[in-house]
Amino acid sequence: MATNRCMNAGCMAAAPGGEWRKGWALRAGGFAILCDKCGLAYDQNVFCEIFHQKESGWRECSYCGKRLHCGCIASRNSFDLLDSGGVQCLNCIKASGLQFIPTQPMPKLLTPPQMRQRPFPLSARGLSEEVLQGRAIDMPSVPLDTFDPSPVKWEEKPILSLNRNPSLIGNSSQNTLDLKEIITENNSSNNNNNSNKISESLAETSLSMSLGLVNTPNTERSIMFPPPELTGQRARHFMPKLSKPAPFDASKDLSSLSHMRVARPPAEGRGRNQLLPRYWPRITDQELQQISGDSNATIVPLFEKVLSASDAGRIGRLVLPKACAEAYFPPISQPEGRPLTIQDAKGKEWHFQFRFWPNNNSRMYVLEGVTPCIQSLQLQAGDTVTFSRIEPGGKLVMGFRKATNTATLPDSQISAIANGTFMADPFFAPQGDNLQIVSGYPGFIHTMKGLPDPVNSSDGDVSWLNKTGRPLPNEGSLLQPLPKRSRNIGPKSRRLSMDSEDALELKLTWEEAQDLLRPPPTVKPNVVLIEDYEFEEYDEPPIFGKRTIFTVRASGSVLQFFMLCTR
DNA sequence: ATTGTGCATGTTAAT
DNA sequence: TTAACATGCACAATG
Question: Does the keyword Membrane apply (predicted)?
């Protein structure tokens, strides 16, 4: 019987009864399941970092703004650390009626591989490793009775090197196993004691894949990394439902992934910022069940992609972050790839071709045939497409959010949005006030239900407010400018930019548009009467022109000149 | 002539 | 320096 163990290097305490259960908590942004001891140490260290370094011993409740005294250990009973970032005071904890839940794990606990290298990806939270060392152990921040003990399935053989994390339990040289080496050995049929150990403790481990979707009565809980300002908000809803099975069963297909390739860790390189779904659609159990057809279904955030001009253009090819494609989409060995059906939040299934191009001894993954989808969702460059998976079943779901109106943003933020770095840090990402999440589906927007939204319940508008309660900038209109890249200005970029500016120029009222249409000056109209209204009828097409010059005769009559345009 | 396809190349960020 | 990726571009397919 496989033995599940604490993922902390140097500990690896066996789970009681060989199963993950209450008392074994998700930590480190959901990337690790730790035993009580290690989990508490982690929490404590994070607290110390927040209180001692960030704000000199003071911190505000992420919900009510109440200032909390440091105390680190002593005050621990009056506030709690949010894995999503920030701190929640006791009053808010009580008022919310929610149990504090452990952060949802990444869909595969130790996948993607880069994340596996470090059970505690503290840098992703803006925390230094130093603060993790040598701290005392305190009470747990996660009530043990809320930990979901349901099993997690390993979708890929872990290649984690736990001994790269010396942070929590000091020197672990004796107790640490380099899993990567061991797995390699294991794969090469060179089994030994260590590989057997790992096979037992990790590779065959069945961990909870529940997403921390803990529902209390009348309560929806969000999922992964919910920004504090959004946590109390009403859930966003997926529309019902589809019927067809998923195009591929990730839980099955991906199980063989490790034998085909070792995906570059999404946490590394550019793609890493697209891997952290800071905003996760919160849906009710009922809705999730409608989508998945499974009462136990959970939704797993995979990754997101900020659409480039190329992605949103007419070519119909969406370049996928390599690491994400390899980690979360079915493995493909041939450039032709394979068809992939992805369901949107409205329930519509989109059929794409998932393939790659050989590129510099590497691969460039693309999703072909996205034009209908892009157009249907009215997406444009700068908007974000998100990919998720429903478990069980592995059904792929795509969502999106429109880019905010970048006119209000400084160039640096515009650029950051475009390249995906704007919300890079899940711990502090909520500070990005200008990034608004909306849905392109009116139905999606207006079918919110559940808990009253403390912010937006009055008018039903889902234009989410920022942390301070100030309204976010309006969603970009149809003339929403492209998120401009300050660099990489090539001919095409300029052309696209001009297109956008042209579009702005074409924002006209109906009257203004009418005003641009002029009858040919040399043609006299026939006047027809339709329902008591006189209409001028011309044999020649109108002239598209714009008033440019006005002059006044001595007699007082006005001459108006038009700049004639080609037609 | 236009659109689609496949690959190459330049830019950028991470290391 | 390297890898990722946005996009350029040549060629093929299609209308």
Answer: no
Average pLDDT, rounded, for chain A: 47
| CB-CB contact of A519 with A542 (8 Å) | yes
Do β-strands A533-537 and A543-552 pair in parallel, antiparallel, or remain unpaired? Answer: unpaired
DSSP string, A32-73: EEE-HHHHHHHHHHHHHIIIIIISTTEEEBTTT--EEE--TT
Q: Is the CB of A227 under 7 A from strand C?
A: no
Nucleotides of B under 7 A from a protein CB: 4-15
- The answer to whether A296 CB is within 7 Å of strand C is no
For A420-481, give the DSSP string.
T-TT--TTTGGG-TT-----S-HHHHHT--SSPPTTTTTT-----B-TTSPBPPPBP-TTPP
Question: Does residue A308 approach strand C to less than 7 Å at its CB?
Answer: yes
The count of C-alpha atoms lying within 13 angstroms of the C-alpha of A313, restricted to the half-sphere facing its C-beta, is 13
**What are the DSSP E strand ranges found in A57-195?**
58-60, 67-69, 79-81, 87-89
Q: Which bases of chain C are under 7 A from a protein CB atom?
A: 3-9
> Collapsing DSSP states into helix, strand and coil, what is residue A291?
helix
Number of other CB atoms surrounding residue A44 within 10 Å? 23
Which residues, other chains included, contact A477 with Cβ-Cβ below 8 Å and sequence gap of 6+?
A405, A507
How distant is C1' of B8 from CA of A359, in Å?
A: 8
- The C1' atom of B12 and the CA atom of A271 lie apart, in whole Å, by 13
- Measured from the CB, is A378 under 7 Å from any atom of strand C? no
- Please count the other Cβ atoms lying within 10 Å of the Cβ belonging to residue A132: 22
Q: Which residue is closest to C4 in terms of CA–C1' distance?
A: A270
pTM surpassing 0.90? Answer: no
Tell me the CA–C1' distance in angstroms for A307 and C13.
28
